[in-house]
Amino acid sequence: MSISPYHSRSNHPRCFNSFHTQLDTMAPAPESFLGSLSQYESLDLTTHIGTSFPNSSVQLSTILGSSNADEQIKDLATLVSQRGVVFFTKQNISLEQQKKLADKLGELSGKPKTSKLHIHPISESTPELGADVSVISSKGGIARAGYVRNTRASAGWHADITFERIPSDYAILKMHTLPKVGGDTLWASGYEAYDRLSPAYKKFLESLTAVHDGNFFVDYAKEHGFPIQDIRGSPENTGSNLTATHPVIRTNPVTGFKTIFVNKGFTKRIVELTPDESDNVLDYLFRHVSENHDFQVRYRWGQDGLAIWDNRSTYHTATNDYDELRQGNRAVSLGEKPFFDPKSRSRREALGIDI
Ligand SMILES: O=C(O)CCC(=O)C(=O)O
Ligand SMILES: [Fe+2]
After folding, report:
1. What is the pLDDT of residues 148-158, one digit of tens each?
2. Which residue's CA lies nearest to atom 3 of ligand 1?
3. Is the CB of 143 under 6 A from ligand 1?
4. What's the gap in Å between 138 CA and the centre of ligand 1?
5. In total, how many domains does the chain have?
6. 314 touches ligand 1 (CB under 6 Å)
7. pLDDT tier at 31 (50, 70, 90 boundaries)?
């Protein structure tokens, strides 16, 4: 059963203000995004982002081994791209299966054949699991390389590895070690961030490109004495200069929706603007994402909880409010070279959402 604002009559977004008096005038609910996954219990955690499969009887390891695995994984990719992030409870999936799933999500939703799992530039710091897995740890490494204590929590908002010429489509994080309380993760919707802008501002942003820079990882590697990985999952992701230029508004090829594609973690400069103008626009967009809590979802992890997100059209940030060990493993898949299709539609346009 699915409990979703888009699927259930009483929660249909068009009806929020008028449900009791105007049932008869409601537009039909848009199609479900679940496809073959509708056989499992799921619920949407907020209107704009986040769907959860709360029952641990739903195991991704079983889905991977099922006779219609490809159909279910393709539907999962669609669901993740539509809802931004999808959560699973108490997963027994192995690391090898997690990597396979990350690769298949993109493969079955049309990524280029040359796009494999990402090898993080500083993954040499965790050689024991394989270069295509990132350990996400409170002790150090990838998740801590850019972290500065005593800055605002909102400084942490990012999408993964956007400094790559071929950045990520999907990422899967499974948490195996958690503090008793704290260490939540938040995600925000890039689709809804775009949809909240005025038509004039949308059009302005659609003409721009931005530089994304991950060279702080190079500094971190130097400081800790390990080399930079210079071949990173795609023939285009090579070398040790971790910068790329991408469109500011990007089309997600799975949904066809427009999304804002700049993030506080990596985006440094809008190419077509003066430095002052660029700072001003980027500051506005970063605040737009971090200050609109009505297109964010906050997730409290449970033991062996797992999240899958679409890095093309969401942002995320961890919550640094604990001091025990917190650890998980992440697999990041590479997608397509980011593009903007001027004929693509926004999520609100396509789904007829008007709340
Ligand atoms: O620690 C977290 O909750 C998220 C870390 C992160 O940014 C990631 O896994 O990509
Ligand atoms: Fe991340």
Report:
1. 888 999 999 99
2. 318
3. yes
4. 10
5. 1
6. no
7. low
